[in-house]
Amino acid sequence: MTEQLDELYAHAHEKHVVVVGGGVAGLIAAWECAKVGMRVTVLEAGERPGGVLRSAEVGGVVLDLGAESFATRGGHVRALIDELGLSDDVVAPGTGAGGAWVAGVPGVGAAPLPKGGVLGIPANPFADDVRRILGWGGAWRAYLDRLKPVLTIGHEHSLGRLVRSRLGEKALDRLVAPVTTGVYSAHPDDIDPDVAAPGLNAALTRTGSLTGAVADLAGARTSAPGGAVLGLRGGMARLADALVERLEVLGAEVRTRAAVDGLERAGATWTIRLAAREERDEDDAVSGPAVDVGPLEADVVVVAIGEAGARRLLAPHVTGLAAEPARPGPVVEIVTLVLDAPELDAKPRGTGVLTVPGSHRAKALTHTTAKWQWVAEAAGAHRHVVRVSFGTQNEEPATAGLDDDEAAALALEEASALLGVALAPHQLAGARRERFLQAQPAATVGLKAATAQARAAIQTAPGIGAVGAWLAGTGLAQVVPDAIAEAERVRRRALFS
Predict the structure, then answer these.
(1) What is the pTM of this model?
(2) pLDDT (tens digit, 9 = 90+) per residue, 227-263?
(3) CA distances from residue 494 to 262, 314, 464 in whole angstroms, order as listed
(4) Which of 62, 178, 263, 364 would you label with 36, given CA atoms 20 to 30 Å apart?
């Protein structure tokens, strides 16, 4: 048995895998291949690996600048964290601050987001917290959902059309749209309820109304409120750091500032062309002319970058795969502010605020020190961290044309409005702005079929694989298991075919 394992490991070591992209999907795919002895090189175009898992010091506090939590569904991310030895640092959001609020409600301003809903859809239109946002007229219109004949209920593939027809415009605009734009960066019309809320359409047909369906689904929930997400003490970027460390222990190479220009295949060998690399000094200033970097050869290539770049590299080698995405994903900018603001000690708007589309320039705000106790402890007394998010599908972030100082000023202004507390520039202890080109949300109408078609085409090509949010869907809970499964597919094909 030992001899067989030694032979298998030696065979695996003969195979070279190049992973194009050092985001979390690429790092996981690389790790899965390195585990069995395959030689692995990760090529990351940016200054650091990790993708959306990134952190930096802001105002003296090391903070997540991208993903700050992970969804617990499926258990895949937690299993990865356990395997990496980070279990003791898993933390839950605080419950003492209350939940999220919604701001920009006509005639109301801001109010707590009703509890017990699904994607903002309420179970009871006349509940006090729902009626406060909809008003009596909006509540009565939503109640008509209970009176509509069952036979008029179809299998609706647009969340917006479903809510509009059953509950009316106020419920759509004031409850559902803030959730989908804040969470998915997309309008409800573009969200497929079967993907975003599995079982909703079936429950609607079973109960005879949309609000009844929400009550039915809410009653079947097994997780406690607030238990849907968890985080890591010290930040989610630690997950990427741990993956890089494990890769290096296994002898893998992780290169940064290594952009890939193209892929070529001759027989069973891939050639990976790298872009010329600029020489930079310790201050990150260009210090000399671009230097050509020699190509790499590999037995297997895993493409782990965004959709536009992935399609450009893959299309020449994958029959039927379009070279460009049908629709680009949303551009989002997050401005993290560290504030000396005792007036925020009371956590005036819970853990954060979603906005009615069109009411504010920001789409959402997270009061990070109210949500995560470890951040509050790291920040210190009376110091608060807030993250202000800008940009949704088909709408450039309001910060897009601003420099960093102007973006911080706008974020501070929006934070004041969303939190209902006057915040002055002199209270700003630090600010950091990050820009993300997101993949299309997995719940986008029609995306599931299009993604399945693209994946099927890629899997017909020998010696190549693809991972990432554009195929798996956004969020670690979807990206992690998909990257593991795809890595298993390509390594098995490379080792046993």
Answers:
(1) 0.91
(2) 489 999 999 999 999 999 999 999 999 999 999 999 9
(3) 21, 18, 10
(4) 263
